[in-house]
Polysaccharide deacetylase family protein
Amino acid sequence: MGRSTFLLITCLVIAPVVNAKQLAITFDDAPRAANGYFDGSTRANTLIENLSKNKVGRVAFFSNTQSLDKQGLSRMRLYDEAGHLIGNHTHSHPNFLDTDLPTYQEDFLKAHQLLKQFNNFQPYFRFPYLREGETLEKRDGMRTLLQKNEYKNAYITLNNYDWYIEVLFQKALKEGKSVDLQRLSNMYIDVLMESIEYYDEMAIKYLGRSPKHVLLLHETDISALFIGDLAQRLRQDGWEIIPPKEAYQDPVAEYQLNQPIKYNPGRIGEIALGKGQKKELWHYTLNEDYLEKRFQQEVLLLSDN
């Protein structure tokens, strides 16, 4: 076998592994307030149905346990009974920048006790706002507590502002505006795919490969409505949807940025920052003004004039 033939075969064998596009889907803030397009139970059932119909498999719901009133608990049980992972997102969703360490730790532990009732509860912790502590005391205090309770940091690699598109959707409905759901789906998915590809390219730049990604979404009406459309687009663009537990086996799970930071762009952004990148750690779609303009133009079909 000639050297050129050997190199070609090697590339064909290695390339799919290096450039494999895989991601897990996770939802924050469950059970999130539902008093707009859907009520809570309709949202939960619609989301579960669309996940199943589109063969998405297991996803993760990170819960704020202060919302586990009778209706919220019923919704979380639906996700649990459908086989989805239930993770800890604190009790009251505190902003770590405005909360002292003992109070934050107490909030985490309160959620831990309440979440143990679910069959599919797993010790994964998603920091609210992705803020892991802006001082060494806070950061290391939470790392120690997580380790003591055998928790894993449920980091994300694919960041976006899907929650703000939901805000725009619900606001338009409240104002009596007609919202074309197909146009909303198109905008929602295009925005998500733009940020997904951006962070994947960033990962390849700094890691030399596409890792097993973790996509951040929120438990919203637009997630329930369009998760099937998103799954189809992901597969169309060459992505495989994998379970969260598999994604968290990727080596990037072990990465820890040396210095504490105030605002966290996600694990890939952390790695880029550690490698010296100072700007554009947040994709341009993570901007409320930008999203509002697109919503006005692409969903409501309103011009700037």
